[in-house]
Amino acid sequence: MMRVLVTPILAAAMALAYAWPAHAADVRVVGVFPGKAVVSIDGAAPRTLSVGSKTAEGVTLLSVDGQKATFDVDGARRTLAIGQGFSSGPSGSGGSKTVLQADGRGHFWASGTINGGQMRFLVDTGATLIALPADDARRIGLSYVNAPRGVVQTANGTTTVYRVKLDTVTVGDITMNNVDAVIQEGGLTVALLGMSFLNRTDMRRDGEQMVLVKRF
Predict the structure, then answer these.
(1) Which residues, listed in sequence order, are joined to residue 47 by a DSSP beta bridge?
(2) In the chain, which segments carry CATH 2.40.70.10?
(3) Rounded Cα distance, 209 and 176, in Å
(4) Top-level CATH class of 23-90?
(5) Cβ distance 215 to 200 under 8 Å?
(6) Does the pTM of the predicted model rise above 0.70?
C-alpha cells in the first residue's frame, strides 16, 4: 500500500482548502422540470439538479414551482425563472448579464418585468422598440390612452399603436430605465423585446444560448 507523507505545511493547506467556502459567482436557469432544474454555473455546460442536491460551488436547489426554481446560493435564497440568473460575485465585477436559451424552433424567450409587472418576452432584433399587446399593458396597469398614437400595418390590416416610455424593464439580472416602447391594440399576441432594450446590451450568440451584457 502506498503511503502519502503529509507535512505540517501540506496539512495546513489541505485544511484551508476544505475550510474555504464554495463560491458560485454566476448561476443561470436553462430549463425547469418537475422536481429538477437545468442550470449553468460560472459559465460551464448546463447540468441537471434535483431538489435537495447541492453542487461543489455551493448551489442548492430548494424547490421547483411551475416555471420557476428556488436556490440557495452561498446562503442567499433566490427564485429564478427560465433565462434568469443570479450573480453572487462583487457588484463591480462587470456589467449585469443574463443568458437566454433557444427553444425548439430557435426562438429566444425571456421572463422579466415591466414597471414591476410580470412579462414574457419574445426576443425580436427586428423590432425597433419593445412592443406590447394592449391586453398585457392593461394587465400590468400601464396607462397609455393619452399617449401619442400612430398606425402600423399588420398581417390582419392596420391597427393603432401608442408610444410610451417604460420606467423600468428587467430581464434576468439586467434592469433598464426609461425604455421606449409601443403598445399595440391588435395583431400582436406576445410582448416583443425589441432594440430599444437590446441596443443597450452587448449581445452574443453562443450555440443555443444568447448572452446579454448590460452596457449602459
Answers:
(1) 39
(2) 109-214
(3) 21
(4) mainly beta
(5) yes
(6) no
